[in-house]
């Protein structure tokens, strides 16, 4: 299916994946069309957008329109701004429990509970390597309090329209589609809402300019294309979280001091095992079928990888989240007693293959037992794991509790 096929179907009045499927000659597999539409909508270079239905169940598709082709202030707004905020509330069952490392979860809860009394603007910034649970913290807090979550993925290519809204051709009709900033402000008029600015440092300051008035005491935004329509929110109800991933593999931009101030209190979210090794070992042994000795080995290897990932000049640039340790432990338990070298084999399938790049496959070489280049990150991790499992690694650095 081509983008032109989707565009033709939408211009003919199709809204949903089933309707688009029916409009395209020679294609009847609705699941295939749904997957292709999702990929197109997630591609920044493709003119196709996906919007959640007002009911919160399913999606409709549109073609972003050229601003110059419309009188934008007179365009009808998709759904007449009758949003179902309850559909944006995550449930406890769908969000993993968050493991507080430095007391950050409890600190944030205390600040939120006292915001009516003390009057602080409820903005928080979470900083740390990828995979430490920053997004989980936000969604878990919202789930426990029954608050809607509006997530905004920050990218280097984003434009102002990505935040405030833009015109679209939807079902053959031109409509205005509110951006996440406008929806968040509207929701805050009625109830507390959590806004997650994911990876806030992945875009330069100029691309995020609408956030300045949203995140200060004005709590508002001006939608310039709609005759400078002003949308105001409730400062106390707009709960803002910005996340910043740290690591050599990330292209980031310096955060402007004025913006940095607006993101509020900053909380580091490090890897649990580097702060409290014994706690991560106990957690792994208690929550998975592995023995304490195996959990010790896994955490030791994970901490070694985490330290190496912090070295920006090294081959290994990704650390190991606690969630990956859980997957490794459960995979090992499945292999133990039934497969050779179960700990190493489980590391390959649950840790190395999903997280690290193997590089180019080599030509067969009888003197080399690997199919992959030694310089690849995955090969480097595999050798490190083998080194630990052989008993040759120096693990004394990881025998004490606290930051190594």
Keyword list:
404 residues, alpha/beta, Rossmann fold, five-stranded parallel β-sheet, four-stranded antiparallel β-sheet, 16 helices, globular, disordered C terminus
Quick overview:
With 404 residues, this protein is α/β, with parallel strands linked by helices. The protein has helices at residues 3-11, 17-23, 30-42, 104-113, 115-118, 134-145, 160-164, 180-188, 211-214, 257-262, 272-275, 277-287, 292-309, 322-335, 342-355, 377-389; strands at 49-52, 59-64, 123-128, 149-153, 165-170, 173-178, 193-198, 220-223, 229-232, 238-245, 265-268.
Tell me what the structure shows:
The chain is α/β, with parallel strands linked by helices. It has helices at 3-11, 17-23, 30-42, 104-113, 115-118, 134-145, 160-164, 180-188, 211-214, 257-262, 272-275, 277-287, 292-309, 322-335, 342-355, 377-389, and strands at 49-52, 59-64, 123-128, 149-153, 165-170, 173-178, 193-198, 220-223, 229-232, 238-245, 265-268. It has three domains: 1-63; 65-268, P-loop containing nucleotide triphosphate hydrolases (Rossmann fold), CATH 3.40.50; 273-398. The strands form three sheets. The protein has a five-stranded parallel beta sheet, with helices on both faces.
- Which range does the strand content fall in? 5-15%
- Mean pLDDT, nearest integer? 84
Specify the CATH class of the largest domain: Alpha Beta
Q: Whole-Å distance between the termini?
A: 53 Å
Largest beta sheet: strand ordering:
4-7-10-3-11
